[in-house]
Amino acid sequence: MIFLPITVAVLTNVLYHIASKSISDEQNAFMGLVVNYATALIASAILFFLTPHEKILVEAAKSNWACILMGLSITGVEAAFVMIYRAGGELSTASLIVNILIALAMLIVGGVFYNEQISAQKIFGAALCIAGVIILSSH
């Protein structure tokens, strides 16, 4: 069952980065985000009504701090990638470098805050990731 959501995540992330790189340099980056979020709001509302749910206010009342933090985080991610690409970041490596660094950070977060095991295998993988970032970052 995990194959489908992973496939969707990969495909939509590819589209996301192509779109981020393609946003007009002439447009204010944050107006671009306004359009992005208006589109996401409409798409999310349609998907909400097409999936099983309770009444809208009951569902909204189930929201917690994580929904707000996620919204703020998404804004930061999107603004950062637009800025990365406008600064000359390459489509072929910018996302890779950022995602490797995220994976390294999540290794620490998982170990410290969620008591996930940090095995020798994970440490070795992290070292390979660090080497990859160094190789990708050098010109």
Model description:
α5 packs antiparallel against α6 (120-137). This protein has six helices and no strands. The protein is an all-alpha fold and 139 residues long. The termini are far apart. The chain folds into two domains: 1-89, no CATH class; 92-139, no CATH class. The radius of gyration is 18 Å and the shape is globular.
The span between the termini is 40 Å
Briefly note the structural class of the backbone.
mainly alpha
CA radius of gyration is: 18 Å
| Count of DSSP H/I helices | 6
Helix/strand order: HHHHHH
Basic shape: globular
Query: Number of DSSP strands?
Result: 0
Major sheet size, sense and barrel closure: none
Average of pLDDT: 95
How many domains comprise the coordinates? 2
Ranges where pLDDT stays below 50 over 5 or more residues in a row are none
Beta-strand proportion:
under 5%
Approximate helicity band: over 70%
Provide the descriptors you would attach to this structure in a database record.
139 residues, mainly alpha, 6 helices
Quick structural summary:
The protein is mostly helical. It has six helices and no strands. The model has no long low-confidence stretch (mean pLDDT 95).
